[in-house]
Amino acid sequence: MKRVIPEYTSLEDIIQDAIDKEKDAAQFYTEASELAQAAEVRDFLLDMAEMEKGHAEMLARKLESIKSDKTVMDGILSSFNDEPEPDKGE
Predict the structure, then answer these.
(1) Second label for 81, Cα 20 to 30 Å away, from 16, 34, 55, 66?
(2) 28 lies in which domain range?
(3) Is residue 45 situated within a structural domain?
């Protein structure tokens, strides 16, 4: 099966999409575990769900870090003015 990858406009979009996919996978495994009749299968599926939740949390932390870094950089860059300040007649 060939996967269709959307055109992303930023790293933030890529990571958010990955977070959404990890959450979907966690939900899939959780729902599948409810259908499992064998305890070992149910436990395995619940373990998989927990791993996917962990992936989503790790990606969410990374996304917040990227957003924070971007905010800091935007603030630094906006403090620079291309035009020199006028002479104050000292």
Answers:
(1) 66
(2) 11-70
(3) yes
Residues 12-45 pLDDT 10s: 999 999 999 999 999 999 999 999 999 999 999 9
- Say if CB 73 and CB 85 are below 8 A apart: no
Would you say residue 84 lies in a domain? no
Per the CB < 8 A criterion, the answer to whether 27 and 68 are in contact is no
Residue 81 CA to residue 34 CA, distance in Å, equals 60
Instruction: Confirm whether pTM is higher than 0.85.
Output: no
Tokens standing for residue 15 = 């990571």
Closest CA to 59 of 25, 13, 15, 27: 15
The answer to whether residue 40 sits within a structural domain is yes
**Contact between residue 63 and residue 12 where contact means Cβ atoms under 8 Å apart:** yes
